[in-house]
Amino acid sequence: MKKCIIYDDLFRYNFNSPVNILTEYVKNNDFEITFIFEQNINYALNTNENTFCKMEKFLRDNQDIKTIIFPSINSLIVTYDDYLNFVKLNVEMHFVKEAFILNSLDHKDKLLDLLSQNYLNNLSDLIKTNIEYYLSQGMPPFKPPFGYKIVKI
Predict the structure, then answer these.
(1) Measuring CA to CA, which residue among 75, 61, 63 is closest to residue 9?
(2) Are 35 and 5 in contact (CB under 8 A)?
(3) Residue 32, strand partner residues
(4) Percent of the chain having pLDDT more than 90?
(5) Residue 117 near residue 83, CB atoms below 8 Å
(6) Can you tell me the distance from the alpha carbon of 27 to that of 6, in angstroms, rounded to the nearest whole number?
(7) φ, ψ for residue 84 (rounded to 5)?
(8) Could you read off the pLDDT of 3-34 as tens digits, one per residue?
């Protein structure tokens, strides 16, 4: 059994969705889950607490883990610095939704293309999801204009 970690950004699809699809994929492909990293909704605001950075540090500390399971290619919205650090780790990435496997060392150009394309394509979707999340929590998604007060609904 190969050790793996799961990177789940479940907030992007459904706020309360379980990780059943990813765990089924792990069981069917004879992997052992070492850790599950769940991306929170405020990841863009706190770069020091970015789940992707925590996962990267975890992989550096645990050299025996060489596989990451992602729900889809859309999960790969990271900075260029994260990309460079990620390529150095030499890990295998499995994208469950697309049934696609990518090795970061062998396919680093393709990985960069995927990252940049996903970032551009999903930027508006990410903003829309954040706005919907804040509205569902009864909070305003933006800072109110000068003179207005924030009142929880």
Answers:
(1) 75
(2) yes
(3) 3
(4) 2
(5) no
(6) 12
(7) -60, -40
(8) 998 888 755 554 445 467 888 888 888 899 88
